[in-house]
Specification:
The protein has about 1500 residues and is an alpha/beta fold. The chain is built from 50 helices and 23 strands. The strands form 6 sheets. A 6-stranded mixed beta sheet has the order 5-6-7-3-8-9, sandwiched between helices. Helix 25 links the parallel strand 6 and strand 7. The protein is elongated, with a radius of gyration of 40 Å.
């Protein structure tokens, strides 16, 4: 520029420009700026555009309509093109006029012109492909803007030198061009509208990220609106955005499942080929763990297939995040270099001031770019973690649906909950730290290189220090891994037992076993925490050794450098640049062990997940469904087993079932009846033979599986609602009277596992589900056993029998009810896993074989059978269970239709009240607002005051020593140099080393005490939670989903164990570090306080904004996790039913929906973390600039050592401030776990377990007299009375039978006598003592109950029989012999030590019932309560058991709830219940003579 005859020489003018200008004004000439700087934006755009066009081609999101923003950009672009063209034309005109022009005056505008055309084409292409905001063009306009700022500043200076009059046109063009570039740069901060066909347009609450601009995405400012919203009011689920498709279960799980199946199929083919080449062999040996071994111990399953599948799905995202991290590290290492130049400037009194300011700006820019790229890496990793969690949880859930029956017995719900809560979390953590395996090594190499350049050969001593300490850390890591594996095993055991206890809390309370089971859990918990303590101690040693190693590096290097040669001086540049490098080295050293530890934990968890995913599944094609002749079911030479490792459970099965026939399957306990149905369902591995089933299948299991849903949803089971058919089904299943008594009729919610239903109601609901399906084949596993005789006959006549709803359908019925056998088309007699005999009723009678033996086992059963033949005739005329009961419970119109109308009329308050009354379970409560300070006090009280004071003291001491060490180094660096040497070098080295050792000791003590306090708090809080839950009444467990409780005992407990102590340690360390840094910076450069104090205020403001939203998001996330656990648990229990109904897709969709809802709360929380980190670090970078700026400003008054100390501390303050606030925020987020564990401390508790002065002796009750005086009971305050004004007296040693129709209140008597629910009015006296004045355990331990649902706990047979270890082995064997189980137990491996699986799934229902009987025989109290204890056993065993009970409990008071009336006909008196009141009470003869309700029941049962 300049005169027309002037020729630009940019290379030569660099130096002349610097020489002629005053210091601090300019660095480069305008000529150089035109020649070089102007090219940078163009080079950038031309290099990146080919790749960007490729990206646009493969990521077309649909076009965007022409908006005002697009039109403005295009107009400005065209004007820029015109200006560039005018400069070219002007230059050519000058040349043509004979005026020489510099080449750049022609080349530069041409380059700008071509690049601008390319930029406009990119703007147009982005609109066509749906890009709302372009990062590529933003960076281009930013570079253009910076270039124009530089050029304009040079042009302005030229104007000041008089250049404007000589070259006015170019000056004006430059100003216009710069203004337009600035306008384009401003427009690049805005985002365009969504694409025309975008789904966002139809989303009520889309995530704003997709529609935000590039700068907003880079700094996460698009999240700010939600932060403000959360600050103004507590966030709710409706405030959160919809989950993007790219993060949804539908998109992610399918990808991983596809890759996983592909890899598994390939591995299976390879294994089969290898097995074929080797001649077969046991090919399953390496894949499946033994059946008797917990699946999580089968680590021989390969992790590599799962790892390979995960890598294939997520590798692109991970590599993009890694690229961001590498770029961030480039700027990280630029900081020490710039600091070196800066301290060199400070040491040089002659250096011009502009250099100092220039270096300060470079420090600021490098720190900002490092922040942006590092936070982008973190964000990508967090998104990847979220997707990985979704994918693996989906994979685990799909595996649950496919698990074979044998593998279900080796796994437990608690173990699976641990998989999805703990192991998947650890797998997620590995994503962030995976690069920590190699990147810290690169950091170390670069650091050593820099140190070599700085200190020469002295840097080699650093390598020696690391090599000496390296073996120590490998030993520590290996030993710690052992403790971590031990901890996980204890955690799994605890989770399994906890799950079993929570599910069977009713049985535990009935037997007063709470304290015994609590001690079992706490015993496991103590071993778990001991392993955690050992692991934490080793981790402390590892951390301190790495911190000590960084100090030793500095000490050894400085000592060797200073002492080996007197001419080696330690100035400020060497000392503090070395410390900055060592700071990076310190981070690498801390990052490396933590990464190794995290990756190792993830590796262990990956093995556990792989072991589970490799478990044996049900083979989907083992049952042939091809059409055949008249036979609906055909089995030829079938041999089946429960697992590949066990012996066959069914052998030589040949079965042909014609279409529409009714087959009955009978046999003794353990004969293989249920196994036969399981084989027909495809649940058992088929070793030999052929199975064919034509048509759809419906299955009714022996133990009813009920969903936590409404009655309607349980029956419809995902099928289309057909109200008339539903009404017929409910009527046939005798459910209309029940619906009339339910609070909301058919909309009444059923608790988990049907906890608010009786055994008969659960079984009828399970049957109704099967009938509603309208299947071709019905497999019914003894559905009549749990029903009263009259209800059972009604079900048989109206549903199963020849005249029932299922007539014409193929039915296979397992039963012990002999009286219905004549109505079966065919009877199969099972014995020892084989079909002993089969044929029609008359054929089997004529053969006089096993069937006749089965019938002849009980003369009473035969008599009942012959008399109950008349029952069908009576029932045909009556047509219903109870005309009065049906009419009372059923309105004029359909019962179903009535409740449908009431439920659908949402505008009527009455209908709303009905629906709300039917709601039983409560969702996980979500607290609102900031975390209360009392939570911290509660946690600190759990830690203990002495430990808290010790922690503060130790942290303060080690920080004082740290400050002293840094200040001592600054004094060393400022030591005067005399004759090329420094004085007192030996003293400086010695004190420096001594201070470092003191700091290491203080650090070890502080961290160790924090972890010790954390373990102590974990033990106390867990014990408190366990006690609070155990003390809750039974209604609490009916209303609280099991997932809510499991969430507290797994995820929240894990947070208190590991996360909170770590966050406390981090926060205290950073807090005291922050105090040190602030003190140094403010004292060294007092002017910096002008910026430090406002920055502190901004930090506090950001923290308050963030915490208000983050804590609430954490609560919402925790609450949304519980439904996932509940659904997994429910699915695990009912997987056989789900497969039989082919409802896998329905349940997968439900699970995916729950996962998406959970991730919908997780996504904003992870964005909130990045929003905080990015903006806090950008603010902190201002402090770096401030410290450097004021150091330059105050240069004459500061020594180099003090400046080095101040600036090096300022470089740390960003990270310290960020992590201090982040640690505090994480702490507040996770302290919510304490809040959630304390939730149940405020719930209503049941009466005291023990009462010190209740006037009851050890031998109470001595007689067993029971008296009800005006007793009334209601289940919930809003419900009607279940028992009304009961007044009766049961004499000592009297045998009383309790009968009545369904819902009459029979089971409520059990609840009242054992005080599961307290009386509404009146009371109960036992031996003259009011039971309300007796401790619950004293009461319940004196009453023995044999429940209808037999429950076993995970543990040995001996533990299940004698939980309190009160009896000898001889007594136990005697009880087993009386219960007809001695032979069976002797045949088990380990006998009394044989491990029962969860719920006793490795035994039949009959065997479990007999074990419960043996348990009662051992307990033998003065009062015995039987709730149809023999419903699941065969007739022969039934009679023997009844005889045993009469003999063993002859001197006891026995109350028997009867479903089969003949079992109570020999009782002294019979209590007849009706609508919760006493209808009749007397001897059987008296009641029959009265011809009242008992007479009608006996008549219906065929007894008269």
């Amino acid at each position: 520029m300049g005169s027309g005859s002037w020729v630009c020489n940019p290379i030569l003018e660099i130096w002349s420009w610097n020489e002629t200008q005053p210091p601090g004004l300019q660095i480069f000439s305008p000529c150089l700026l035109n020649a070089v700087v102007a090219w940078l934006p163009s080079i950038y755009l031309w290099v990146i555009s080919p790749f960007y066009f490729l990206y646009l081609h493969y990521n077309n999101k649909g076009y965007i309509r022409m908006s005002c923003l697009f039109k403005t950009k295009m107009v400005l672009g065209f004007i820029l093109i015109i200006l560039c063209s005018s400069k070219i034309i002007f230059t050519l005109w000058k040349i043509k006029g004979g005026t020489p022009q510099a080449p750049e005056f022609l080349i530069n505008p041409t380059v700008w012109l071509v690049t601008m055309i390319l930029a406009l084409f990119l703007i147009h292409s982005e609109r066509k492909t749906g890009i709302q905001s372009s990062g590529v063009l933003f960076i281009y306009w930013l570079l253009c803007f910076l270039s124009m700022v530089a050029i304009v500043s040079a042009t302005v200076y030229q104007v000041q030198q008089g250049g404007f009059p000589e070259d006015a046109f170019r000056h004006l063009i430059t100003y216009f061009y710069s203004a337009l570039i600035g306008a384009q740069f401003v427009l690049s901060f805005l985002a365009d509208q969504p694409p025309f066909f975008s789904k966002i347009l139809h989303d009520s609450n889309p995530c704003p990220e997709s529609g935000s601009s590039f700068p907003s995405k880079a700094t996460f400012w698009w999240f700010s609106r939600l932060v403000w919203q959360g600050y103004r009011k507590p966030l709710e689920l409706d405030d959160l955005w919809s989950l993007g498709k790219e993060n949804s279960s539908e998109e992610i799980i399918s990808q991983l499942e596809r890759e996983w199946k592909k890899i598994c199929n390939k591995a299976q083919q390879t294994k089969e080929e290898m097995g074929f080449e080797r001649g077969g062999g046991n090919r399953d040996e390496a894949t499946f763990p033994p059946e008797t071994e917990a699946f999580l111990q089968g680590h021989q399953s390969s992790r590599l297939p799962l790892l390979k599948a995960i890598w294939k799905v997520f590798k692109v995202t991970f590599l993009l995040g890694t690229l961001s991290l590498i770029i961030s590290d480039v700027f990280r290492f630029a900081v020490p270099k710039i600091l070196s130049f800066f301290l060199e400037f400070i040491s040089d009194p002659e250096a011009p001031a502009w250099k100092g300011y220039f270096y300060a700006v470079l420090l600021f820019l490098s720190a900002c770019l490092q922040t942006l790229f590092e936070q982008r890496h973190m964000y990508v990793c967090m998104i990847l973690e979220l997707r990985l969690k979704t994918a693996v949880m989906g994979l685990v859930y799909r595996k649950i649906l496919g698990l074979s029956s044998a593998m279900r017995k080796t796994a437990a719900v608690g173990e699976i909950i641990n998989l999805v809560s703990v192991d998947i979390q650890r797998l997620m953590d590995a994503v962030l730290y995976l690069n920590g395996l190699w990147l810290p090594v690169v950091w170390m190499i670069i650091c050593f290189t820099f140190l070599w350049q700085l200190l020469g050969p002295s840097a080699l001593t650093a390598i020696a220090v690391f090599l000496i300490l390296l073996p120590l850390n490998f030993v520590i890591t290996k030993k710690r891994s052992h403790f971590q594996e031990e901890q996980m095993l204890h955690k799994d055991h605890r989770g399994q037992l906890t799950d079993s206890i929570l599910r069977n809390m009713k049985i535990i309370k009935l037997h007063a076993w709470e304290e015994a089971f609590m001690e079992k859990i706490l015993s496991i918990r103590r071993r778990e925490l001991q392993a955690l303590k050992n692991s934490g101690f080793l981790f402390t040693v590892s951390l301190v050794s790495f911190h000590l190693s960084t100090f030793l590096v500095a000490l050894v290097m400085f000592a060797v450098h200073a002492l080996t040669d007197e001419k080696h001086v330690l100035d400020a540049e060497k000392a503090f640049v070395a410390l900055a490098i060592i700071s990076i080295l310190n981070r690498a050293q801390a990052f490396l062990p933590f990464s190794i530890n995290t990756i190792f934990q993830a590796w262990v968890s990956l093995g556990r997940l792989a072991a589970f995913l490799h478990l044996e599944e049900v083979e989907p094609r083992k049952i042939n469904t091809s059409p055949m002749g008249e036979e609906c079911i055909s089995v030829q030479d079938g041999t089946f087993t429960w697992s590949q490792e066990s012996s066959p459970c069914l052998q030589r099965i040949n079965l042909a079932v014609p279409q529409g026939s009714l087959f009955a399957v009978i046999g003794s306990v353990g004969s293989g009846k249920s196994s036969l149905l399981a084989a027909l369902l495809g649940e058992l591995p088929k070793l030999e033979g052929y199975v064919n089933i034509k048509g759809s299948v419906a299955y009714v299991p022996q133990e009813a599986w009920i969903q936590n849903a409404s009655v309607e949803e349980n029956v419809c089971f995902g099928q289309k609602l057909d109200i008339p058919w539903l009404d017929r089904v409910m009527e046939a299943c005798a459910f209309h009277p029940d619906l009339a008594s339910f609070p909301a009729g058919i909309h009444t919610e059923i608790g988990e596992q049907g906890i608010n239903l009786s055994g008969g109601q659960k079984q009828r609901l399970s049957l109704a589900r099967a009938v509603y399906k309208k299947a071709s084949v019905y497999l019914l596993d003894d559905p009549l056993a749990a029903l009263d005789v009259h209800v059972g006959q009604h079900i048989f006549d109206h549903v199963i029998g020849p005249g029932g709803l299922l007539q014409g359908m193929t039915r296979i019925l397992v039963t012990h009810a002999v009286h219905i056998l004549p109505q079966a088309d065919h009877i199969i007699v099972m014995a020892d896993g084989a079909i002993a005999e089969s044929g029609s009723y008359q054929e089997l009678l004529q053969r006089n074989g096993p069937f006749v033996d089965f019938l002849g086992q009980s003369k009473q059963e035969e008599a009942n059978h012959s008399q109950e033949m008349k029952f069908s005739e009576v029932k045909k005329s009556s047509g219903n269970i109870s005309e009065s009961g049906a009419s009372a419970g059923k309105p004029d119109s359909s019962c179903i239709q009535n409740y449908r109308e009431k439920g659908s009329t949402t505008l009527q308050s009455q209908a709303e009240g009905t629906r709300m009354a039917g709601q039983l379970t409560e969702g996980d409560r979500v607290q609102y607002g900031r975390v209360n300070a009392t939570l911290y006090l509660a946690y600190l009280r759990a830690v203990g005051t002495p430990i808290c004071l010790s922690v503060v003291f130790l942290f303060l001491c080690q920080q004082v020593v740290s400050f002293s060490r840094g200040y001592w180094l600054s004094l060393w660096a400022d030591d005067p140099i005399v004759n090329g040497t420094q004085q007192h070098t030996g003293l400086r080295v010695g004190v420096f080393g001594l201070l470092g050792c003191f700091q290491a000791i203080g650090r070890f003590g502080s961290i160790a005490v924090v972890l010790l306090g954390g373990v102590r708090a974990s033990q106390r809080l867990f014990q408190g939670l366990l006690h609070d839950v155990a003390r809750c009444p039974m209604t609490f467990f009916e209303q609280t989903p099991i997932g809510n409780l499991l969430n507290r005992f797994s995820k929240e407990t894990d947070a208190i164990d590991a996360v909170i102590p770590d966050k406390f340690k981090s926060f205290l360390g950073f807090l005291f570090g922050l105090l040190e840094v602030t003190l140094v910076v403010v004292v060294t450069t007092p002017l910096a306080a002008v910026v430090v104090l406002p920055l502190m205020a901004l930090y506090v403001g950001l923290q308050n904004l963030y915490v208000a939203s983050s804590c609430q998001l954490r609560r919402l996330e925790s609450a949304s996790r519980s439904p996932i656990y509940s659904h997994i648990s429910e699915t695990f229990q009912g997987s056989a039913v789900i497969r039989a109904f082919e409802a896998q897709d329905q349940f997968i969709a439900q699970n995916d929906s729950r996962i998406d809802e959970h991730q919908r709360t997780s996504f904003p929380r992870l964005v909130a973390d990045r929003w905080l980190a990015t903006n806090m670090e950008l603010l902190g970078n201002i402090l770096i600039f401030t410290a450097a700026f004021f150091a330059v400003f105050s240069k004459p008054h500061l020594s180099p050592g003090i400046v080095g100390f101040s600036v090096s501390m300022a470089l740390q303050v960003t990270e310290i401030l960020h992590w201090a606030v982040r640690s505090w925020t994480d702490l507040e987020n996770n302290i919510v776990s304490v809040e959630r564990m304390k939730d149940y401390s405020r719930t209503t508790k049941e009466a005291p377990w023990t009462m010190p002065q209740n006037g009851v002796g050890h031998n109470w009750p001595a007689m067993g007299q029971i008296e009800f005086r005006g007793y009334s009971l209601r289940y919930r305050p809003e419900l009607a009375l279940a028992l009304q004004d009961l007044t009766l007296k049961i004499h000592p040693q009297e045998k009383v039978g309790i009968v009545g129709r369904t819902g009459a209140g029979k089971s409520s008597l059990t609840i009242s006598l054992l005080r599961l629910i307290e009386a509404a009015e009146g009371g109960i006296w036992i031996d003259g003592v009011n039971i309300c004045q007796v401790g619950l355990h004293a009461l319940r331990s004196k009453i023995t109950i044999i429940p209808q649902d037999p429950i076993l706990f995970p543990g040995s047979v001996r533990m299940n029989l004698d939980l309190l270890d009160e009896h000898s082995d001889d007594e136990i064997w005697g009880a087993l012999e009386m219960a007809q189980l001695k032979t069976f137990i002797l045949g088990l491996p380990g006998q009394l030590q044989y491990e029962c699986s969860d719920q006793g799934d490795n035994m039949s229902v009959g065997q479990k019932q007999l074990l419960c009987l043996a348990r009662a025989l051992l307990r033998k109290t003065k009062i015995l309560f039987l709730d149809e204890a023999t419903a699941a056993v065969d007739p022969q065993n039934d009679l023997q058991i009844q005889a045993i009970l009469r003999d063993q409990f002859a001197d006891c008071t026995v109350l028997t709830i009867a479903h089969r009336l003949h079992t109570v006909m020999d009782c002294n008196r019979i209590l007849v219940m009706d609508n919760g009141a006493v209808a009749e009470f007397g001897t059987p003869a008296q009641l029959l003579a009265q011809r009242g309700l008992f007479y009608r029941l006996a008549e219906e049962s065929g007894l008269i």
